[in-house]
Amino acid sequence: MLVVDPRLPSAPKAVVSEALQTASKWIETWYRKRVRFRIDRTESVDSYLAEPLRKLPVLNEWRRFSYSLDGTDTVMRFLSQQSDVLRALPIDALRSYVPASIRSRITTPEQAALNLLLIYDEKYRLWKSLRTPAGMPFFDTALPMKHSYWHWERVFETVWPDSVTDHLIVTNVMLLDDALSDAPPHSLLRGGLLNGFSEEECPQAIVSTFPIFTDFPAISDLRDSGEFTKKDRLLALSHIIAHEFGAHVVEGLRDVYDHEACLAVPTSGLAYQTTIRRLFQGKPCRRGHPKINRAVNLANRYENLARRYLEIKEYGKAKAAVERAIAIDPKRPLVKLMLRQIEKKLK
Is residue 340 in some structural domain? Predict the structure, then answer.
């Protein structure tokens, strides 16, 4: 489906349709699985986001995990968490992935975290200042959650996994990664500017056309060529769809940074043309990949649903969600305790 901000320009629907067809072919080539996409409807972003959160609000205690997009927060609050994230990555692979201009500063996980967060902060402030030729701000200060990756995830989580119908969403909204407690390096390098993300356990993914079809010097500088043709844009969008839906949703693979001809390698910065060239350097990647633990993610999803239903005192739905979490992952003592508490409420 298409979720649009009607205030802003959008990628032509015909281009989106062609990109979906191209991505489908690439997924079949890389993973030998057939996926067929179709655009079934278009909805306003404001209505798409507002109604689910009205019915099932976000717990206030969770908000500390995201960077507030209202200008009151500091990125340095996430320095220790980011150091932990980067400690799990081979430092040489990370150094080879980042732009040459900052490689000398990627010496330890702590130094990498500091420098990537500073890059994030500088670019993020720039994204918030961008305006259309007509003077309309791309960043909606009246409804900043429409740009928040963290809030989009909370909206997706209002839907029971077996009831998801919007498996792929394409939007013209500027999406920003504000989940800085575990944001990956490629998001930080772009100042949080997202090409897309996926919820592999559902399955569900969202792709933003904003970085590909919006032209400003600050965005062009993150690309890897002076000229960005219609064909370049089509291939870039095709790759993002194939990466998010193919590598993550279909195959359940984690991002990797040092494979060749691999759909699981995310775009570095907005270097779309380099990414496409690297994708077609040799035969499709058949190396081993780290896998996402779908079962754990699915159990987490049901547990979070239960907590949100508890908050609004819908104990029957909370009990059903907890029971599903336990069925998937019985080794969750706190969830079992939650179930006993819910059963007392229902008596």
Answer: yes
Give CA–CA dist 5/42, Å, rounded: 11
Mark whether 58 and 191 lie in a shared domain. Answer: yes
CA distance 227 to 213: 13
Q: Examine the domain organization and report whether 305 and 199 are in the same domain.
A: no
| Total Cβ atoms within 10 A of residue 125 | 11
DSSP string, 233-286: HHHHHHHHHIIIIIIIIIT-BPP-SS-SS-TTSPPSTT-HHHHHHHHTSSSPP-
Whether 320 is in a domain gets the answer yes
Per-residue pLDDT tens for 63-121? 888 999 988 899 999 999 999 999 988 888 888 888 888 899 898 999 999 999 999 99
Domain that holds residue 321: 294-346
Q: List C-alpha distances in Å: 11 to 81, 172, 342.
A: 36, 7, 47
CA dihedral angle for residue 310, residue 316, residue 321, residue 327, rounded to 10 degrees: 130
User: Distance (Å, rounded) from C-alpha 74 to C-alpha 67?
Assistant: 8
Task: Supply the DSSP symbol for 292.
Answer: P
Question: Which of 23, 6, 284, 61 is closest to 168 using CA atoms?
Answer: 23
The whole-model pTM stands at 0.88
**Which parts of the chain are beta strand (E)?**
2-4, 42-44, 168-171, 196-199, 204-208
Q: How many domains, in total, are found in the chain?
A: 2
Half-sphere exposure for 300 (CA within 13 Å, toward CB): 11
- Strand order from edge to edge, sheet including 42-44: 42-44, 2-4, 168-171, 204-208, 196-199
pLDDT digits (tens, 9 = 90+) for 204-245: 999 999 999 998 888 888 888 778 999 999 999 999 999 999
Assess whether 51 and 191 both reside in one domain.
Answer: yes
- Please state, as a whole number, how many other Cβ atoms lie within 10 Å of the Cβ of residue 304: 19
SS3 at position 148: strand
The answer to the question of residue 52 being in a domain is yes
Tell me whether residue 268 is in a domain: no
Residue 135 backbone class (left: φ over 0; alpha: ψ -120 to 50; beta: rest):
left
User: Structure tokens of 99?
Assistant: 């732009």
